[in-house]
TrEMBL record:
It comes from the Bacteria. The lineage of its organism: Bacteria, Pseudomonadati, Pseudomonadota, Alphaproteobacteria, Rhodobacterales. Belongs to the ABC transporter superfamily. It is a peripheral membrane protein. InterPro entries: AAA+_ATPase (IPR003593), ABC_transporter-like_ATP-bd (IPR003439), ABC_transporter-like_CS (IPR017871), MetN_ABC_transporter-like (IPR050086), P-loop_NTPase (IPR027417). This is Tungstate transport system ATP-binding protein.
Length: 237
């Protein structure tokens, strides 16, 4: 399949009710690895991820992909902070994106079982997805996203409801997905997680992309006073 990357953002801006939520932001998403969005609450991380994924109306600027619409949609996935569950079992929920892509029922079920085991839901295959705990829903959402081996995966705070063990497992799954060729872009509040996972960091403040830097550079020599203050744990007003 043709690569959907690079994704080029040219001065994109998002405004709602006269308020600027994001932008203007320019960025090119390409290559391999894990990019991590950091920034204080309300700095625009979720809005930025949603804009790239194509589910946020753009008020200005341009978004360009290297491929056409159907491929672009099929080759990417998004794990939401509060994933929406279907009225299906865990097994069928994970199998669903494959069924949509025309994979046979038997193959989809077998891939779903493999992914359920990988995210630690192997014992929950027959349970309704709706009754899972918050952390289990996040794991299911990750399995449902990765079962199609997407070229590009967006995640919004994927470990927000998870304990240390589950976070560790998810981080390894993301690193494996990355090695298998999935480009990952995610937000996190957890500076430790960014240090563990990031290849590069995008630092947002007040809807503006203040820094884009390789991880080591951002953590040792942030280029802006806001970035430095954020890393020190100061409140950014
Ligand atoms: N649909 C909307 N209409 C109006 N304002 C919105 C809308 N969605 C988000 N906002 C506002 O846009 C700003 C950016 O929100 P966003 O959720 O993108 O930030 P964030 O960095 O992801 O925050 P957090 O870390 O708290 O999840 C916030 O001030 C938020 O209140």
């Amino acid at each position: 399949m043709q690569s959907i990357l690079p994704l080029t953002l040219e001065d994109i801006e998002i405004r709602r009710n006269g308020k600027r939520l994001l932008g203007p932001v320019s960025w090119v998403l390409d290559g391999a690895g894990i990019s991590i969005l950091m920034g204080p609450n309300g700095s625009g991380k979720t809005t930025f991820l949603r804009a790239m994924h194509g589910i946020e109306r753009i008020s200005g600027g341009r978004i360009r992909w290297a491929a056409q619409a159907p491929e672009v949609q099929q080759a990417q996935a998004f794990v939401f902070q509060a994933p929406i569950m279907m009225r299906r079992t865990v097994r069928d929920s994970i199998a669903y994106p494959l069924r949509l892509r025309g994979v046979s029922r038997a193959q989809a079920r077998s891939a779903a079982e493999e992914w359920a085991a990988r995210v630690g839901l192997g014992a929950a295959l027959a349970r309704p997805a709706m009754v899972l705990s918050g952390g289990e829903k996040q794991k299911l959402a990750l399995a449902r996203a990765l079962v199609t081996a997407p070229q590009l995966l967006f995640l919004d705070e994927p470990c927000a409801n998870l304990d240390g063990r589950a976070t560790h497992d998810i981080e390894h799954i993301l690193q494996d997905a990355c090695k298998a060729g999935t480009r990952v872009v995610m937000s996190t509040h957890d500076i430790g997680q960014a240090r563990r996972l990031a290849d590069d960091v995008l630092f947002l403040h007040d809807g503006r992309l203040l820094e884009t830097a390789p991880k080591d550079q951002f953590f040792t020599r942030p280029a802006t006073p806001e970035g430095a203050a954020f890393l020190k744990g100061d409140l950014l007003l």
